[in-house]
Amino acid sequence: ETGVTQTPRHLVMGMTNKKSLKCEQHLGHNAMYWYKQSAKKPLELMFVYNFKEQTENNSVPSRFSPECPNSSHLFLHLHTLQPEDSALYLCASSQTSGTFYEQYFGPGTRLTVT
Amino acid sequence: GQNIDQPTEMTATEGAIVQINCTYQTSGFNGLFWYQQHAGEAPTFLSYNVLDGLEEKGRFSSFLSRSKGYSYLLLKELQMKDSASYLCASLDSNYQLIWGAGTKLIIKP
């Protein structure tokens, strides 16, 4: 257990569905991240929130919509996804002050778009 | 551009030593991370180097050469449980991690 939880662990959805991924961190960190991990590709940073404010949006399609109500919770709202969006979605958290920026990851949500 | 290169796959024998190399080119540099990721699980932190040299932590060691844009992860006394992907990541000038695609390490008895 890394102190970062994600639900659900597995999700199958049709292209017209709307669903949400949830992430919660119990580490007192101020930054939270959404990553997409596809087979044999580097981790793709999607969104970064620092003290609840979005500081990074790496040209992510609008069918992915993040929400960060507080420093401990992060959501990723999904709608009208495409089959190529099937991947492992990882949430991470870290401190962004001091000299150490280790990111702690949740177990991920395995998303399949049919 | 920003780029992290590491081998796609390596094979080693139980009890042996393996070195996984990583070269990086990023906009600024604030350190180099290594993570381990078992199949179907989250990446977990292994090491962080920001100064040149070797950092040893049990069976695992990590080396950094900033002038060469090069790092390696050294795993000694390999165990079957070390079969995993090893991810190299550089912390850039914006303190964002730039990730390599990972090296899948296969340990054979």
In terms of topology, how is this protein built?
The complex is a heterodimer of chains A (114) and B (109).
Chain A: E1 4-7, E2 10-13, E3 18-25, E4 31-37, E5 44-50, E6 53-57, E7 64-70, E8 73-79, E9 87-94, E10 104-105, E11 109-113
Chain B: E1 3-5, E2 9-13, E3 18-25, E4 32-37, E5 44-49, E6 53-57, E7 60-65, E8 70-75, E9 84-91, E10 97-99, E11 103-108
Parallel strand pairs in B: 2-11
Antiparallel strand pairs in B: 1-3, 3-8, 4-5, 4-9, 6-7, 7-8, 9-10, 9-11
Give a brief rundown of this model:
The complex is a heterodimer of chains A (114) and B (109). Chain A is mostly beta strands and 114 residues long.
Could you characterize what this model shows?
The complex is a heterodimer of chains A (114) and B (109). In chain A, the strands form two sheets. In chain A, strands 2, 4, 5, 6, 9, 10 and 11 form a seven-stranded mixed sheet that branches. Chain A is globular. Chain A is an all-beta fold. The mean pLDDT of chain A is 90. In chain A, strand 7 (64-70) and strand 8 form a beta hairpin. The termini of chain A are far apart. Chain A is built from no helices and eleven strands. Chain B is built from no helices and eleven strands. The mean pLDDT of chain B is 94. By secondary structure, chain B is mainly beta. Chain B starts with a strand and ends with a strand. In chain B, the strands form two sheets. In chain B, strands 2, 4, 5, 9, 10 and 11 form a six-stranded mixed sheet that branches. In chain B, strands 1-3-8-7-6 form a five-stranded antiparallel sheet, with no helix packed on it. Chains A and B meet through strand 10 of A and strand 5 and strand 9 of B.
